[in-house]
Amino acid sequence: MSILIAPSVLAADFANLQQEVEMLNKSDADYIHVDIMDGVFVPNISFGLPVTEAIKRHALKPLDVHLMIINPDQYLEAFKNAGAAIISVHVEACNHLHRTLQAIKDLGCQAGVAINPHTSIETIRNVIQDIDMVCIMSVNPGFGGQKFIEHTYTKIKDLKKMISETGANTKIEIDGGVNANNAQMLKDAGADVLVAGNFVFSAADPKQVIADLKVLK
After folding, report:
1. Which of 48, 59, 161, 194 is such that its CA lies 20 to 30 A from the CA of 81?
2. Is 35 a catalytic residue?
């Protein structure tokens, strides 16, 4: 199956966000990845509902909304209404993960779970069949442009094995430090979706970078 690409607008030019979204519309990207940070769960503040709504007004690709926030349950409906097609919550932020996943699905969105670098994939074994996409953080969440964590490859392989053993239909998404040097290895390890921020938006031709990622064998 062809790899799916989800450029992260966290790395976009915020002063020209409409133009950046329209560029992604014309590209081979599959999703638009929207990172929501609250300055509490992660040491940074990005943007929230108004900017998500603004992106949605111009986006022709589904919004892949990644909630890096505490108490995500109270915002699920709001982000659905803002345009999210996929809502991912952090396993570390959810006391009742199964209930949260069901709430996301009841809203008509795909349910995702993000896992920080220090967190074992075993934390989601009992709910893997309820998860549409697992977002493995390959950097510590909060800031773009960080160095890729090499242990991610092992984590992908272990998660792929879990998905196979349980008969789940879960996709594996990789978020952080994705570039031309590791993209093929990530796909070979079992990744289905690659989030790319600086690698795309700092390029002279972002659409070509996305096109090159799409043709990984």
Report:
1. 194
2. yes
